[in-house]
Specification:
disordered N terminus; mainly alpha; 9 helices; single chain; about 0% strand
């Protein structure tokens, strides 16, 4: 009788432990991110990143997913982590990655999110020869700064030539 109870308990608790497969974790992180469950997304992406090697194709996706989720919880940390990731992986990070992260930061309601988005935009402009790839993003950030009345953000954008 005790063995049956123990077996039942193990079967009930097994799904709660979740998967340790990095691809499954990355998928779960993406699903949570898309659903707006940023805390769950961070947890899944952190586990995936820890389990993946940088040569794995899912490694970049897991890292960028982690930053996207953090953009909504802790914009300053997300910005710092993304810029560090971009510095240490210059051949893997593209202008589209800069745009994506800055967009998530710009959409976040977290403290300092708009300024963090502008700093990612600025780093992207400095990294790529054709800064025009960031023009559409810049227009969106300016709209957000205007609608929120953020004069410091507007001043920063003007300093970047927008």
């Amino acid at each position: 009788m005790k063995l049956r109870t123990l077996a039942g308990l193990v079967l009930c608790l097994a799904p709660a432990c979740g998967s340790s497969d990095p691809r499954t974790l990355t998928g779960a992180g993406s699903n949570a991110l898309n659903a707006g469950d940023y805390s769950a997304a961070v947890q899944n992406f952190e586990k995936a990143v820890a389990a993946l090697d940088s040569s794995d194709p899912d490694w970049k996706q897991a890292n960028l997913g982690l930053v996207q989720a953090r953009a909504h919880l802790d914009p300053a940390r997300a910005k710092d982590e993304f810029l560090a990731f971009a510095r240490t992986n210059p051949t893997k990070v593209t202008d589209a990655d800069f745009t994506m992260i800055a967009s998530h930061l710009g959409e976040s309601d977290g403290p300092g999110a708009l300024q963090a988005a502008i700093e990612v935009l600025e780093a992207g402009k400095a990294t790529y020869k054709d800064p025009r790839v960031f023009d559409a993003l810049a227009k969106e950030l300016i709209k957000r700064a205007e609608s929120s009345g953020n004069s410091e953000a507007l001043k920063s954008m003007k300093g970047l030539g927008y």
